[in-house]
């Protein structure tokens, strides 16, 4: 009888110890798991933070530069009043007069008595034909336009848009100072205007040039106002 009771007590004790050990083991495992999860979580957080910083850095680098762009920019003087830096301090007609790339345009603006108008009008965008743009027009036709102040004024003011347009605002149809419209197509650093004096679409060869009161886009053709 005593033997039977002793065996029962031993079995009960063994069973209790087994349950206790099992529970302790489970607690230890959970603690270990929690401990190992903590560094992993910290690492994940650091990685996520690093990724966000990387994304911010990339986003910043992808922003369009404020510098002038285009193959034609290489013809602009590297220093002096006619350089990009020098032009920023002067109003647009004065700035253009210091840039040899725009000497024919300046002659036309002077002929039309538009120097003061361009210099004193705040915040404008000027589509500025470079010298080769005028050279592409037959000389007899060019001289006839230069001699007709009304026609010359209409053509030149067709190249001026109220407001300073950044490159990402340039594409679209805009009302000009002449009261008509000009449509510019493209994106990024590639822009064209279909309506020109010669019939050959104009391309922006040097864009986002800053002056004291204007943003200038130099083109390789003279634009033509719409007929009518």
TrEMBL record:
Assigned GO CC terms: extracellular matrix; extracellular space
Alphabetized UniProt keyword annotations: Signal
Gene3D superfamilies per the UniProt record, alphabetical: FAS1 domain
BP GO annotations: cell adhesion; extracellular matrix organization
SMART domains for this protein: FAS1
Pfam families named in the record: Fasciclin
Gene Ontology molecular-function annotations: cell adhesion molecule binding
Location of the FAS1 domain: 89-223
Region (Disordered): 23-91
Annotated coiled-coil segments of the chain: none
Keyword Signal among UniProt keywords: yes
Signal peptide interval: 1-18
Top-level lineage group: Bacteria
Residue stretches of biased makeup (Low complexity): 23-67
Name the UniProt record assigns to this protein: Uncaracterized surface protein containing fasciclin (FAS1) repeats
Organism: Geodermatophilus nigrescens
